[in-house]
What we know:
The protein has one helix at 26-40, and strands at 2-9, 12-19, 50-54, 63-68, 74-75, 78-87, 90-111, 114-121, 128-132, 158-161. By secondary structure, the protein is mainly β.
Amino acid sequence: MLIAGCAEHSGTTTEVALQAPAQVSEQDRVGKALADFLASRSIREVPAHRDASTDLDGDGTNDLLMLLDDQNWCDSGGCTLLVFRGGADGYRLVSDSISTRAPIAVADRTSHGWHDLMVTVGGEGDSGVVALEFDGTRYPGDPTMGALLDPSRLVSAKPLITATGTAIAATQP
């Protein structure tokens, strides 16, 4: 969108074309969030990842969850989950949690104003789901320390990243 304005200098009129800032795509915002995270750890290789967005903190702006399901970001317990807060200028890292597996869902329940995240932990045959509760600053760094939840508690959780490798974008809790 171009906006034209007129300015008068010494009796002459000059037209000045002002250009509106370019729109940044959601894909670019996600890519920048990951690039900034990797740069903060001096890592150059971009890992395979799945991401989903939803408003975790109730501010009307979608936040970003990113599961780094790449061999360099996974161990026998799972992979690294990044949570970013969305804002007008992009995403800011809130927390990173190791040893998480999909499926990942958002719960109706909140802790310190942020929705709990339901993540799968454990290996084949002995896996379960734990709730990551926001502590006012971040989500827990190691979900394997949490107690496994009763499956009946998971009914109200809305899926964000499925176990089959798909992500569900822009969901509302």
